[in-house]
Amino acid sequence: MHETDMTKALILTVRDWWESQPERPTIAKVHLTVGQFTCVEPASLQFAFEVQTRNTFLDGATLAIQETPLVAFCHSCQQEYRPEMGIQYACPACRSPMEDIRSGRELKIDRIECKT
Amino acid sequence: MHQTFDAALEINLLHANQEGADHNRAHFDEWGITCLNVMSSPGAGKTALLECTLAALSPELKIAVIEGDMTTELDADRLRQYHVPVIAINTGRSCHLDSKMVAGGIHRFSHDYHPSEFDLVLVENVGNLVCPAEFEVGEHAKVALLSVTEGEDKPLKYPFMFQEADCLLITKMDLAPHLDVDVNQIVANVRQMNSRVTIIFVSAKTGEGLDAWFDWIRSTVIAQTEVQKQRISAIV
Hints:
- The complex is a heterodimer.
- Chain A is α+β, with helices and mostly antiparallel strands.
- Chain A has one domain: hypothetical protein PF0899 fold (2-Layer Sandwich).
- Chain A is built from two helices and six strands, in the order H-E-H-E-E-E-E-E.
- Chain A has a three-stranded mixed sheet, with helices on one face.
- Chain A has helices at residues 2-19, 42-52, and strands at residues 26-35, 62-68, 71-74, 79-81, 100-103, 107-115.
- By secondary structure, chain B is an alpha/beta fold.
- Helix content of chain B is 40%, strand content 20%.
- Chain B has eight helices and eight strands; from the N terminus they run E-H-E-H-E-H-E-H-E-E-H-H-E-H-E-H.
- Chain B has a seven-stranded parallel sheet with strand order 4-3-5-2-6-7-8, with helices on both faces.
- In chain B, helix 1 (15-31) packs parallel to helix 4.
- The longest helix of chain B has 26 residues, at 210-235.
- Chain A binds chain B through residues 1-2, 4-6, 9-10, 12-14, 17, 21, 25, 28, 32, 37-40, 85-90, 97-99, 107-116, and chain B through 2-17, 93-96, 98, 130-131, 133-134, 156-157, 159-160, 163, 191-195.
């Protein structure tokens, strides 16, 4: 359900861009970055995208999802670490709470591949 | 000959929702209203907590509730007994409120009432530990509830909600003695990802901890009103 709404948001954003283009190019591929520390499951997003783009301007376009890992920075230790999702978020060395997330929160449309 | 080219967008997927949330917040600021987004899993006790809150605070604060529910008005009806405006939003198949739905609620509210007379809007989100955390609705602060019956591991399994919360209420404390639950472990698990959250232990049944929760609301409203006043005087 969640991914259905995410996909709707994605399609609306891409449509805004597409309608602003004088040539209205054919969109071949949409590239996304999805962080590991978000509520989005890439497989569900792929499925929702396939279903929701049928018979639209995005019909036939594919979705490429680049996943980014959860990386946090510990200010006490002055170094990055990889929290273990579902198990441990605090710094493994000094147990400081996870404060500064450097990667993993991305939900971004990076670029669009087009054909004219 | 076909040509291919790339267009860089670099736009957040939730861009439209975020813009809507900022718009809602601007309305609240203009009216001098503090908005709290209340979130938890289904059955953690959001409605019971709001019932206690309305009973205790509605004499001193002018409160309205925006009530998100997938299909029914059962929760909204419970809260209407406290004689405050309750705007019910049925989210249908959607498992969270988004900024557009809340904008619809705000529109109805501002049509039927004088919003600038209000101090506080409590948004009761759809019961769900996952999605509501990603969709801001225009709140000034996020309140999360976790009941002792849900177990210590939930903050680790559903970190998004707990990482973003400004206030965490550990609810149903009256049941804690009857359960194999380590309340300190819940706190430790939350602290792993959120060192600044205010944690309050409450029971809507016995009243334990509710005064601390009411004080948190009072101080949040006072602080927010101060920020809003300063912003207005900066503009003038």
